[in-house]
């Protein structure tokens, strides 16, 4: 079997820590390296499109809101784990770029609804699709049957720590913004600095 950089990493650390479990170290380090590669790919794509991580996260959130791609500023703030007043500057910047528009709420004229524009949707998909392509390219190292097995093994591993609310979708934020903000998963786009 061909060695990779993780094998060399393990060899080094086994000399320093003789009771290091090479299997656990190998699996966990490889998972971390795959995630690091995908994160670096996303960061490069965002930079190439002139997007900050928090901007992409907002576009992604709105893009996942179904028909109309709308949300309240409070829902967007919950997704970002910010106060509603703290999200205003971020929304201003996205509106200035033409990625969102603010509309008066039909239910309450004092409130606004944030809507993803066609330009914002294009900016989101222009980075979303290549990210998915890179993920598929990495996974293509496995045969289709192996991919199914790997997915099932990861599902079993997740059951060790999985809980309701661990991973939210844009639709699950509405209605319980505070809970969503507290339990937002690291596996959704990073909203940027808090």
TrEMBL record:
GO molecular function: DNA-binding transcription factor activity
Region annotation (Disordered) ranges: 166-194
Signal peptide residues on this chain, from the entry's feature table: none
InterPro entries: HTH_MarR-typ, MarR/SlyA-like, WH-like_DNA-bd_sf, WH_DNA-bd_sf
Location of the HTH marR-type domain: 24-159
Alphabetical GO biological process terms: response to stress
Residue ranges, compositional bias (Low complexity): 172-182
PROSITE patterns to which the protein is assigned, alphabetical: HTH_MARR_2
Annotated protein name in UniProt: MarR family transcriptional regulator
